[in-house]
Amino acid sequence: MNIAMLLELPAAVAGDQTILLDDERELTYAQLREEVARLASLLLAHGVGPGDRVGIFATSSARVAEVLFAAAAIEAVAVPMNYRARHDEVAHLLADSQAKLVFTEQRYLEDLRHARQGDTPLLLLDGELAAQLAEAEPLGELASTGEDAVLMYTSGTTALPKGVRLTHEALSSFALAAGEMADGEERASNLIAVPLYHVAGLTTLLVSIFTGRRTYLQREFTPEGWLQAVARHRVSEAFLVPTMLKRVLDADVEAHDLSSLRMLRYGAAPMPETVIARALERFPSSTGFIGAYGLTETTSTVTVLGPEDHELSGSDGDVAEKRKRLRSVGRVLDDVELEIRGEDGEPLQAGEVGRVCLRSARAMRGYLGEDATLGEGPAGGEQRGGEQRGEAGAAPEEPGERWMQTGDLGYLDEGGYLFLVGRAGDMIIRGGENIAPQEVERILLGHPGVADAAVVGVPDEEWGQRVVAAVVAAPAHEVSAEALIERCRTRLAGFKRPERIHFVEELPHTSTGKLMRRKVLETLDAPSLTSS
Hints:
Elements: H1 5-13, E1 18-21, E2 26-28, H2 29-45, E3 53-57, H3 62-73, E4 77-80, H4 88-97, E5 101-104, H5 109-115, E6 122-124, H6 129-135, E7 148-153, E8 163-167, H7 168-176, E9 189-192, H8 199-211, E10 214-217, H9 223-232, E11 237-240, H10 242-250, E12 263-267, H11 273-282, E13 288-295, E14 300-305, H12 316-325, E15 331-332, E16 336-341, E17 354-360, E18 366-367, E19 382-384, E20 387-389, E21 404-412, E22 418-423, E23 428-430, E24 433-435, H13 437-445, E25 450-460, E26 464-473, H14 481-489, E27 500-503, H15 517-524, E28 530-531
Parallel strand pairs: 1-10, 3-4, 3-5, 5-6, 9-10, 9-11, 11-12, 12-13, 26-27
Antiparallel strand pairs: 1-2, 7-8, 8-18, 13-14, 14-15, 16-17, 17-21, 19-20, 21-22, 23-24, 25-26, 27-28
């Protein structure tokens, strides 16, 4: 099923229902479908056809949503790009995707002109496009089938971003499982503040359009703008990454009417305990919370920490258990299989830390140019060319049949809750002992004087690596390196304790809140650091 049908089907029965808004436009299903059909014709006029890639280098807007659906309508492949990328990163996105044309905004025009190769057309969403669309003849029928729907790029925390090939089938199945199709009745109202180049933003949009959730697209996130949007549009559902939620909590939450907000979802990066604890205290009691863990490569969410897990009520023992599980990312969804496996590929018992491995029909087709799943297949043979090969002569497995390594380390508790302890490549090895940076960071972040923290291993001739932390002090708090090291001493094994604390003004994160550890080491070389 082509994702264009996620618009086509509800538009046929609920055409007059308002479904999509931004700061400039408000569209009903019928109007959105009309604009998508005109845009699809325009793409055909520019020579775009099935399998061609259509770049999007722009902030969130209704026009961007229209491009996503219009590309699908002619079986082209949409390529939402990180508009915060600069210079070499922009050149990489354009060259790697081989986009036939790129939709952008005036503010990014010069960057794209310098970065592109050849004369790839650049169409301005905030320029001549409106006039061109007014003259375009709407496409009669939107495509109902197709293979690759979207090429989404990873956040590039450790290397250049990779293109992840997501299919119409995977994206459609995710949306279909989220709820019943719109029928014209007023349902929830949604606020999307996460960029549409992030899989959480994309899938939230598709789910909202299909199920009739009136959706407001915030062009660029600001805490005050988000709070105002919730109040003004009477938003009932929203999604934030942890850094966004922290910034909202640092603003004047109580000064805004958030009584309409029934569900706040969060994910895309580890959630510090202190942040979710503050959110539970400061948001209205009528607001429920859902934590989600997923990957671009698995078409978004694979585990969920539900609203009931955030209700800190019951006996003292129940509350203590729930507080502990707030550090988890919840339990696996019905359409996903999850196992924790050791270095030998064998499943581990509850409580044992190993590699998080997944299997789902929503798995990506592969990385662009590689067709490879996530790392080596943890079981069943050698991984090559996107196929996991077992015994000689065995038929290649379909994407949904493969076990994939996520690159994350974690463990399952007795209740099936998944706890992540770090990335396999981030593991610090000091004197032969393995240290998960997130475990140390959790202790540091528990101090009221710490706003952000990153723990890395620096090379050392004697120990192999030494544990060093970079810390951002919280405003209006005083904290010393000695106090933080003492805090770790009383809560961690001696070999896990940071040997040095460096105070920095900020830590490098991606636009969706993921820590860029490779840049933290560069930060530690800066001459202006305050050290223990």
